């Protein structure tokens, strides 16, 4: 059979065949010329030819998501958000830290027939719900943003305070109304202070702390430290107000003055706080998949075992200093150092306290508060290290729902 050459014309039947694109090249071969053209695949669904998103080499999250969520680390709106969160936590955590004065008043007037440990369940329910309900508030925050959640939480919290102002003041009058009157008063206080205000606090505080992740990463420790100082500030200011108003004005007007102060702080928080990352990242439902991450699990265990709520001056300084230091040397490193500092303080100072050396007790309270106060501010920041800002609400709320049992 005679071999065809490029100068040799093709037969007519071969010229009618469709020619592939490769025949237009000077390097075409006989196989290319004679091969039939490949038909495109046609199916009911288009094929996804887009490559998978690049994965961040440090934390395993998609790189495009990390870049989109990268916080600006400052700016006017960022620091205004910090100021708004400071106002929110002053109103909520500050008032919770002042419950000692209010609880003493309950024991003397409203609930004089109840044991102190029974009265303590009311304030305990408030703190428990504030932390525990974050498991649902966190995913809501990631989905809807801060505005409506913060507004709803503020209204719920204030409604509980307003309701407290309508309770009767004279415990003797309650007893004369019947044997069930003390139990009714206990139920009302549990409902208003424990359930209503605790639920409002969960909405307010979870949003106020989660929104910091929208604006800060490298400086998040400092921002969280500033916000958590507010609980010490409120824990010092609110008792001074109550110790002045309760003896002179009574329960009803003291609660109304307290409501006015808290309403002003919550209003400022609602105005100043603004979210940066748009929502719609998930369904807004509770999700416990984050516990599959061993780092998150052990961080939650650490926060659970070390979470101590105190309101002394040393604790306030500890929260601010630890937050600033953590941005320099690392959040988990700071947590370990402050834990060691607290242990050393216990053995070096507390063990030496005696009746004739009571100044050591005050020194211990200041130093120990400085060390343990860091847990309050560094705990959420450590949790934030394990996720991207758009999912911080879920991680923080889930973690501290476990901490609530401590």
UniProtKB/TrEMBL annotation:
PANTHER family: MONOCARBOXYLATE TRANSPORTER, MONOCARBOXYLATE TRANSPORTER, PUTATIVE (AFU_ORTHOLOGUE AFUA_2G12790)-RELATED
Source organism superkingdom: Eukaryota
Organism this protein belongs to: Triangularia setosa
UniProt record similarity statement: Belongs to the major facilitator superfamily. Monocarboxylate porter (TC 2.A.1.13) family.
Entries under SUPFAM superfamilies matching the protein: MFS general substrate transporter (SSF103473)
Single Gene Ontology MF annotation: transmembrane transporter activity
UniProt keyword annotation of Transmembrane present: yes
Residue spans crossing the bilayer: 78-99, 119-141, 148-167, 187-209, 221-241, 253-273, 335-353, 359-383
Membrane topology qualifier: Multi-pass membrane protein
Location of the region described as Disordered in the Swiss-Prot/TrEMBL record: 1-23
Subcellular location: Membrane
Keyword terms: Membrane, Transmembrane, Transmembrane helix
Protein name: Monocarboxylate transporter
Listed Gene3D superfamilies: MFS general substrate transporter like domains
Pfam families xrefs: MFS_1
Compositional bias ranges of the Basic and acidic residues kind: 1-17
Major localization class: membrane
GO cellular component: membrane
